[in-house]
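Appendix B. Extra example for self-study. Work through it before the problem class; the solution is given directly after the inputs so you can check yourself.
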Amino acid sequence: MRGWSGREIGARGAVALVGGYGITALWCAVVARLLPMSRVDATLTATMLSFPLYAGAAIWAFAARSLTRLCATGALVGLLGLLVFVGASL
Amino acid sequence: MTLRQTQAVLHTWSGLLVGWALYTIFLAGTVSFWRDEISRWTRPMLGHQTDRALVLDRAQTFLDTNARGAKSWTIELPGDRGAGTLLTWQPQSKAGEKQARRRRRGDHEQWLDERGRPVIVPETRGGDFFYRLHFDLHYIPVLWGRWFVGFCAMMMLVAIVSGVITHKKIFKDFFTFRPGTRQRNWLDGHNATAVLALPFHLMITYTGLITLMTLYMPWGVAANYPSREAFYKDLLPSPQVVGRLEKPAPLANLDRVVAEAERRWNRGHAGIIRITEPGDTAARIQVLRRLSDRIVDGGQAIGFDGATGAWLKGPEPQSGGAVTRDVMIGLHAGRFAPMTMRWLYFLCSLAGTVMVATGLVLWGVKRREKLANPAQAHIGIRLIERFNVGFIAGLPVAMIGFLWANRLIDSAAKGRADLEILAMFLLWAFCILVGLGRPPRQGWITVFALGSLLAAGLALFDQIATPTGLVSSLMQRDIAMAGMEAGFIVVALVFALLARKVARHTPSTRLPRGRHTRMQVSKAGIAVPVE
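Solution. Structure tokens for the complete assembly:
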């Protein structure tokens, strides 16, 4: 097998760290808005769920077949979150 | 690359990048399961078995005499494992003066011993120091420390999950009983400590993130509330503040108020009692439940009228989400844990500490194994190997140094608590320098030997120079303090054994290329598995 270059590892790490946080933050807000519970419970539940989500994003950032694919899918998931959030706020 | 290979890369880097910090956090957290015992050990003059009625009565008399007309009083009663009652009070703020937020370091505090007598206690942070080091670190702003610790915890969570994915074969093999087979060589320290306590590692890392979750992930709050304050107000209704009426009225009997609170909790225990505007008709008493009473960490405050002692409100019911969050925090801090459970917490947490330490060491070993000539390693590998000595062996040695400083620094010394902490960090820095300045093998031996001497010396010192030695603690049937002293002896023995083991260790001779690669698969260490 051929391992990854340092640059590939660094890039995926950066996507996992920054992109992963961005997507998690966005979906945390979406879930907090949409959960059919009292405001305080929805907020707490969404926040508690965000950490496994972030960990999953990091795992995925390294499991994805290529960097391009990863960025494209990540952007799509982010965009979807944004749309749902805006839609829910209207 | 296959999934297992990609996750091996993630596992290695997420663990390695924050390894030393994680080790520090883990070890400080591990000893914090004995926070009360360490605090008692650092303040032996406080006694142990607190007579609550007597202490409350004397606390009330003391505060009434010495803090009359104060804005508020706080009485912190010890739990079953703790000692000493801490009284603090906040004077009325003068016009134009900013309210002092930090009350701990002022002149407005007094310790009472087990019989409620005021005692002078040498200034020390005691077990609280390790507890705060665990999530605040030290010498840096608290908020930076918490963010960094949260970052490390997140990396840990990723390292655990990716480690499970990479090494999923371990789990199948681990629970297979194969009589007659030779000892499996993959069962090294890292794998054993990781696999045996894996549910604990996952739990403690996740719940650790939960303790400060709205700091790390404030976006749920931001989506639903105009401000953080609005969220907290919704989460935990704060007691109503009543201004001073300037109509004097004696405070109700605190012991009776506390007994009423405990009845309302259905045989709970009071932990903290807060009195606002004592001596005035506007006085309010808030009694907080001891956190060790329940697995749910927090809540359950009961409010009373200060002048009449009449019940006003509480305990307020908590919402499902709040209870869930508080149970997570309870699981993390383990305040509820009785002795057997506490030992399990301690041992699992120790396994986590060893897992991080062996992971760091293994990284260097694997890197060297892969080189054409292991004797000539890259400067980066050599540096990490040498830093490992100072961080891994040096930190516990420095912690023993903190305890030594507690015994040696003059009890009236100015800034004593900070001196104890400084002593710890200086000793740690010394160990790091030793590690850097000597070849790793000599470094390990030196630091472990130093730790062994310091730990054994501490037990000896206490036996000879203080009334809190192992023998006298045993004779007084003070199991906790005898346990501390015996613990020092165990630590000394373990360090001595480790030093001897390093001294006798012969690095494995290099194997032919083909054999070498096959061994990497069966070992299932942190190196990339070979297909």
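Self-check: The two ends of chain A are 51 Å apart (CA to CA). If your reasoning did not lead you there, revisit section 3.
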